[in-house]
Amino acid sequence: MNVGKLGGMKAKRWLWVGLGVLGLAAVVFLGGALAKSDTPKPAPSTQLAPSIQADQLARDAQAALSKNDTATALSLAEKALKADPSNAAAAAVVAAAKAQPTPAEPTKPDSGDSSSKDDPYLSAVKDLKKLLPTKITGWEVGQVVEQSPDALVTYQPEAGSTDDDWTKRAVFSVHDLKTVTKAKDFVAKVDKVAYAKTPATLSVGVVDTAYFGTNESGTAMVAFARGRFAFEMLVVAEQGVDPVALKDTATALAAAFPAAK
Predict the structure, then answer these.
(1) pLDDT, tens digit, 9 for 90 and up, residues 158-195
(2) Average pLDDT of 215-223?
(3) Within 13 A of 27's CA, how many CA atoms are on the CB side?
(4) In DSSP terms, which residues pair with 229 in a beta bridge?
(5) What is the DSSP string of the chain?
(6) Residues 51, 143: Cα–Cα separation, whole Å
(7) Which among 261, 230, 233, 229 is positioned nearest to 247, based on CA atoms?
(8) Euclidean distance between the first and final Cα of the chain, in Å?
(9) How far is CA 58 from the centre of its chain?
(10) Which positions ≥6 away from 151 have C-beta within 8 Å?
(11) Could you tell me which of 93, 80, 91 has the C-alpha nearest to residue 52?
(12) How many CB atoms lie within 10 A of CB 166?
């Protein structure tokens, strides 16, 4: 047999073997690449800021409270405060949910009280929402929540407004304490204790004895009693803003209460 011819045949055989191996490798590589490309990538996880979580929980708590679901409202509000202790709306829901109705008492002024007998705030009000502000220039009104003997409404500063630079939200609430004495005691023993920093006495509209104070969580408050009702206005400062700097803003906001007019 011709040696040259035999060598040529062997060379061709090895060439075909080599091409086959390369082809198989290409198939394996391509299959692996396709398999990898078909594998779904895990979606990136997102975590809401604590303040946003608290706002959502507070809104849900307000909705539950409006349906008289006190247990759910209290649970959601407490979770909101755990996420953001400065969330005034959640704090107001907790206060309303924990409030226990007291037996009705005579609504005439207590002995020695200087309130006028004609003051409409000495009598019970069927719709407590009427005692809350309904419109404030530069602020957007939120949901109104009523659960006798309390009602509250939340406002947020309009984007681009002056207050938007300094404040996050404001919460207005009214509590029917049944008597003049209990209304005054509520301001003295609850509001003045919870907001004991930087105390001051203010004139808010027709009310000359309103109380102003702040707390450690960056919230300023104005509270006053009129007749059998206690009124509170909480305004939450933006991060880095000293709440005492909101004194004028808080005073102006509290003047929006119908009881201050």
Answers:
(1) 999 989 999 999 999 999 999 999 999 999 998 998 89
(2) 94
(3) 6
(4) 176, 226
(5) --HHHHHHHHHHHHHHHHHHHHHHHHHHHHHHHHHHHHSPPPPPP----HHHHHHHHHHHHHHHHHTT-HHHHHHHHHHHHHH-TT-HHHHHHHHHHH---------SPPTT----TT-GGGS--S-GGGGS----TTEEEEEEEEETTEEEEEEEEPTTSGGGGTEEEEEEEEEE-SSHHHHHHHIIIIIHHHT-EEEEEEEETTEEEEEEEE-TTSEEEEEEEETTEEEEEEEEEPTT--GGGGHHHHHHHHTTSGGG-
(6) 18
(7) 233
(8) 123
(9) 5
(10) 128, 129, 131, 132, 144, 145, 173, 174
(11) 80
(12) 18
Counting every residue written for the chain, the total comes to: 261
Which tokens hold the place of 243? Answer: 């709440």
Structure tokens at 195: 């907001």
Beta bridge partners of 228: none
Tell me the whole-structure pTM to 2 decimals: 0.62
Task: Print the SS3 string covering 118-167.
Answer: CCHHHCCCCCHHHHCCCCCCCEEEEEEEEECCEEEEEEEECCCCHHHHCE
Amino acid symbol at 177: L
**In this predicted structure, which of 7-11, 31-35, 168-172, 192-196 has the lowest mean pLDDT?**
31-35
Residue 162 CA to its chain's centroid (Å) = 21
Question: The tokens of 161 are what?
Answer: 């407004």
Q: 133 or 7, which is more confident? A: 133
For tokens 């400065």, the residue is: 86
Query: Rounded to whole angstroms, how far apart are CA atoms 73 and 108?
Result: 34
Which position has the token pair 């949910």? 97
